[in-house]
Design brief:
Layout (H helix, E strand, L loop, with lengths): L14 H14 L4 E4 L5 H13 L3 E5 H9 L13 E4 L2 H9 L1 H9 L8 H4 L3 E5 L4 H6 L7 E4 L10 H9 L3 E3 L8 H11 L34
Parallel strand pairs: 1-4, 1-5, 2-3, 2-4, 5-6
Helix pairs in contact: 1-2
Length: 228
């Protein structure tokens, strides 16, 4: 998917590069730093957490993200019970939390915060956010000096709905993101290391470009079955 996005010899920005961008942005923002990022992008969550620490902020995550990180069973990844992490339960997740009462009790024991007191922490916090949480943030008075950092594929912004919400709330938006897909130099390294008998593009927007970059390309149509 990356072949048409970058020059043939260009690399995507690394997570380490993003970390410093986040630090610089968090240090500039006067109020709540709201980051729109996937709760399943573990690398990005670690980057955001590290940047929050370096900028003197705590990290606030919703229940869904906290459960994703807990499910990894990896003690080296940020967890909802850590000292400088808080968990908040949006309205959209509160019903599920009540149904799973032990889950709710667990996070209430471990530094779960209330929407009504979030404003006290906001200037020193980074909050993982999504569009469905904006109304609740506004209604509880937590958006003074707040800004949004968008850390996902910007194709999701094309319908304009999120930008319209932010404009109505007078909240600035900036972008800090890098692709999770391999760039062309990395794909070349992979092919050189494996020396495959055949290279077949899958999930590519421009499969025709493979012939110009790799040896032994065997293109296949979507839905086509073949023996290997």
């Amino acid at each position: 998917t990356s072949l048409a996005r970058l020059d043939e010899n260009a690399y995507f920005v690394t997570e380490s590069d993003l970390e410093q961008q986040f630090v610089n942005t968090f240090e500039r923002i006067a109020g709540l730093a709201m980051v729109f990022a996937s709760g399943q992008n573990i690398d990005r969550l670690v980057t955001i957490y590290r940047a929050a620490l370096k900028s003197g902020r705590c990290l606030i995550m919703d229940l869904y993200t906290a459960e994703i990180l807990a499910a990894t069973e990896n003690e080296h990844l940020p967890q909802g019970h850590w000292e400088n992490i808080r968990v908040i339960i949006p309205h959209s997740q509160s019903k599920q939390a009540r149904q799973a009462s032990e889950t709710e009790k667990h996070y209430k024991r471990h530094r779960c915060i209330k929407w009504t007191t979030l404003h006290e922490l906001a200037p020193k916090a980074v909050m993982l956010c999504r569009a469905s949480m904006l109304r609740q943030l506004a209604n509880t008075g937590n958006l003074a000096g707040a800004e949004v950092i968008y850390s996902m594929w910007d194709g999701y912004l094309k319908d304009g709905r999120l930008q319209a919400q932010l404009d109505a709330l007078n909240i600035p938006l900036s972008k800090i993101h890098t692709s999770g897909h391999a760039d062309t130099p990395t794909l070349k390294r992979l092919v050189a290391a494996l020396q495959p008998k055949a290279v077949t593009p899958i999930h590519s927007e421009h499969p025709e470009l493979f012939d110009t970059l790799f040896p032994n390309v065997e293109a296949r149509m979507d839905g086509e079955w073949w023996s290997i």
